[in-house]
Amino acid sequence: MADKFDVIVIGAGPGGYVAAIRAAQLGLKTACVEKWVNKEGKTVHGGTCLNVGCIPSKALLETSHKFVEARDHYNEIGIEVGELAPNVAKMLEFKEKVIAKNVGGISALFKANGVTALEGTGKVISSKQVEVTGHDGEKATYETDNIVIASGSVPVEIPPTPLTDDLIVDSSGALEFAEVPKRLGVIGAGVIGLELGSVWSRLGSEVTMLEAMDTFLPAVDQTIAKETFKLLKKQGLDIKLGARVTGAEVKGTEVVVKYTDAKGEQEITFDKLIVCVGRRPYTQGVLGDDAGVKLDERGFIFVDDQCRTSVPGIYAIGDCVRGLMLAHKASEEGVMVADIIAGHKAEMNYDAIPSVIYTAPEVAWVGMTEEEAKAAGIEVKTGSFPFAANGRALANNAPEGMAKIVADAETDRILGMHIVSQHAGELIAQGVIAMEFGSSAEDLALTCYAHPSTSEAIHEAALAVDGHAIHMANRKKRK
């Protein structure tokens, strides 16, 4: 029997590594198990997010966006540049540097906080034991008082499009293309599909997105979703809604995809195909036969509101449990669980978790959409404001998009905030903070915002809830 710990965390992604650090900070003897091995054969922390997800995709989104800005828009603001061309190899090199800095930072934080890093695959074999199988196949069993499962998720594969090396790929493979594909197909027009499609479209691909659903971004407030659809189509993304893929055939270096839509059976040929139809919880090999941890009907680990599983002393967080599959949601659950284990009272407000799509412009939201509120029987009032009427957005040459606030018609409490704009992912924090403090739309309307700033669009949207917006024509009389 190996060392005993107060806490063992399985998985070092955004949920797991944060849980481990927090637990160690609270004086608990903590270990974190991670099996991820990089291209050099070295165990690395950070999980999907830092290695093949959030961070590397944002590196490519930013570099590709800067390329388009320089090529298409610098001349508009008086900066003349010569002929430009993307250097994909250097972009990928930059992406790898960003990954290395992030994962190296986590390893340093483990050392600084006294977290024991265990290399290999972790398995819960009882409520008090974790078995770790090293990369060499050697097994070691560790005793612990508490276990936190943070095993994450993996991309969903679909039978019509089995993955084929460098031709039919998942989201991870889409970050590794050595050159820009001329014709790129993307199955799924959700968050991941839109981001990856945007990267390669900016660099020169003809991108066609096949989305089975008839509604674009159904989880997003539809005022914002319709505006986003219009802006992305204008950028060149060919988004086909109601297009259900039925098969794919590799012919040499091409992929022929068959799908059905309102017009019947269709066929289209691509040079590369990305499958982005969602993610599923990863629990394979994590739970031993005697673990006693229950899964729900979709394969997620069953937990309560404080991430307790069906077995006392075992918790689960992040993508392998119910709720949004978001890195920041996992991290906050990790903090909550560590605090609970240490004896503190802790909880999360699941109604105030922001979501962001890092296209250009970005799409961000928190709380209820207008459609969700009405479906719940809540009478609402809304206020919106276009960035085309915002001085800073015009000065930034980024006038696209709008901000919208959904408030309870009776109490004026903010139920949701929805934005499509440059830096929407930063601006949405105002909505998160407002909702955490139970703010009313009037609270934001009475707040003094810096001028000029794009944040003023939020201020104007709050004013517009009661028809008091200053910088646009009001449909309601001031009270």
At a glance:
With 479 residues, the chain is an alpha/beta fold. 29% of the residues lie in helices and 25% in strands.
Structure description:
Belongs to the class-I pyridine nucleotide-disulfide oxidoreductase family. Its EC number is 1.8.1.4. Pfam families: Pyr_redox_2, Pyr_redox_dim. Residues 5-334 form the FAD/NAD(P)-binding domain. This protein is of the alpha/beta class. It has three domains: 4-155 and 280-348, FAD/NAD(P)-binding domain (3-Layer(bba) Sandwich), CATH 3.50.50.60; 168-277, FAD/NAD(P)-binding domain (3-Layer(bba) Sandwich), CATH 3.50.50.60; 352-464, FAD/NAD-linked reductase, C-terminal dimerisation domain (Enolase-like, domain 1). The chain has 13 helices and 22 strands. The protein has helices at 16-25, 47-52, 54-73, 88-113, 191-202, 222-235, 327-341, 370-375, 391-395, 424-427, 429-436, 441-445, 456-464, and strands at 4-10, 30-34, 116-119, 121-126, 129-133, 139-149, 153-155, 168-169, 183-187, 206-211, 238-241, 244-251, 254-261, 264-270, 272-275, 279-281, 314-316, 355-357, 362-367, 380-386, 402-408, 414-421. Strands 1, 2, 3, 4, 5, 6 and 17 form a seven-stranded mixed β-sheet that branches. A five-stranded parallel β-sheet has the order 8-15-9-10-11, covered by helices on one side. Helix 6 links the parallel strand 10 (206-211) and strand 11 (238-241). The N and C termini lie far apart (73 Å). The model has no long low-confidence stretch (mean pLDDT 96).
